[in-house]
């Protein structure tokens, strides 16, 4: 049995929490929603997709849906203080469609994944993100007139300012990642060849490692077995393809599943609805 799990379920478009608790052992896990963490205080590393970052106050951590991650607490232990935002990918897509040429509000996760997952903002920049995220968190807990609408407006303002800070180079790659380059090479190869057969022996040969060493090191660095990692990434790709018009059975084949029943069962286990129900829910929104 793999020692990772899917944690948390998002039943709204987004949620925001200010959490401060005592450090404890947190296993590798993933979500089917995006997550942004504004780190305030503590003594921790953060591991995302095999890359480990040491955190400093005012670091911003970007975790895209499906990415395997966990915090690792160091000694001397201090309370783990952070503000966390959970975001439904479909929610960002709906907003981005209002301005398709300029407003890709999920770009921060792609940009961070292409460089480093952890960025840093010093104080006294044009946009003080900590001010905006504090205001958003306090409003989300309020009960005033039209508070839900006001919270959504502040959330969109925060996402726009966050992207402007990224594009304006106000966020820096403060934390240098520690990682095994051969495991990162395997992860990159998997990402580029999800629609093709992917065999462990071939992946091991790619990086000149034995099959068993690669399997052990991959699990150690990512929390996933190679087979389960590939399956999860294929399911995320399938969900993306379901936004188009291609028949569901063709999508099943395109993302590497041998038969539709296996694909449908895996999709339901991962996303809690069948592929056809997911596509139908997209049509109802449009």
Overall description:
It is a single chain. The protein has 286 residues and is α+β, with helices and mostly antiparallel strands. The chain folds into 2 domains: 5-167, Regulatory protein AraC (Jelly Rolls), CATH 2.60.120; 181-285, Arc Repressor Mutant, subunit A, CATH 1.10.10. It has helices spanning 89-96, 107-114, 129-140, 147-167, 181-192, 200-206, 211-222, 226-241, 248-254, 260-271, 275-285, and strands at residues 5-6, 14-21, 29-30, 34-41, 44-48, 51-54, 59-63, 69-73, 80-87, 118-120. It has a 5-stranded antiparallel β-sheet with strand order 2-9-4-7-10. A hairpin with a 2-residue loop joins strand 5 and strand 6 (51-54). Helix 3 (129-140) runs antiparallel to helix 4 (147-167).
Which key phrases capture this entry?
286 residues, alpha+beta, Jelly Rolls, Arc Repressor Mutant, subunit A, five-stranded antiparallel sheet, three-stranded antiparallel sheet, 10 strands, 17% strand, globular, disordered N terminus
Topology:
Elements (H helix, E strand, L loop, with lengths): L4 E2 L7 E8 L7 E2 L3 E8 L2 E5 L2 E4 L4 E5 L5 E5 L6 E8 L1 H8 L10 H8 L3 E3 L8 H12 L6 H21 L13 H12 L7 H7 L4 H12 L3 H16 L6 H7 L5 H12 L3 H11 L1
Parallel strand pairs: 1-3
Antiparallel strand pairs: 2-9, 4-7, 4-9, 5-6, 5-8, 7-10
Helix pairs in contact: 3-4
């Amino acid at each position: 049995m793999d020692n990772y799990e899917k944690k948390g379920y998002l039943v709204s478009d987004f949620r925001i929490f200010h959490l401060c608790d005592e450090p404890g052992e947190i296993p590798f896990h993933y979500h089917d929603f995006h997550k942004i963490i504004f780190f305030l205080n503590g003594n921790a590393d953060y591991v995302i997709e095999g890359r480990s970052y040491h955190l400093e106050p005012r670091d911003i951590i970007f975790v895209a849906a499906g990415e395997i991650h966990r915090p690792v607490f160091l000694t001397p232990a201090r309370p783990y203080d952070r503000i966390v935002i959970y975001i439904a990918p479909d929610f960002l897509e709906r907003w981005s469609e209002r301005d398709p040429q300029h407003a890709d509000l999920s770009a921060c996760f792609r940009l961070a994944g292409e460089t480093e997952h952890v960025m840093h903002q010093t104080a006294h920049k044009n946009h003080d993100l900590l001010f905006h995220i504090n205001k958003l968190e306090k409003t989300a807990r309020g009960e005033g007139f039209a508070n839900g609408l006001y919270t959504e407006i502040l959330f969109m303002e925060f996402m726009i300012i966050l992207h402007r800070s990224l594009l304006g180079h106000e966020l820096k790659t403060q934390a240098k990642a520690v990682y095994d380059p051969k495991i990162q090479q395997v992860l990159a190869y998997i990402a580029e060849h999800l629609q093709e057969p992917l065999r462990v022996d071939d992946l091991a040969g790619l990086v000149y490692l034995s099959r068993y060493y690669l399997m052990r090191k991959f699990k150690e660095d990512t929390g996933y077995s190679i087979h389960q990692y590939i399956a999860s990434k294929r399911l995320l790709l399938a969900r993306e393809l379901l936004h188009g018009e291609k028949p569901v059975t063709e999508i099943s084949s395109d993302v590497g599943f041998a038969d539709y029943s296996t694909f449908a069962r895996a999709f339901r286990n991962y996303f809690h609805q069948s592929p056809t129900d997911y596509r139908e829910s997209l049509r109802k929104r449009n």
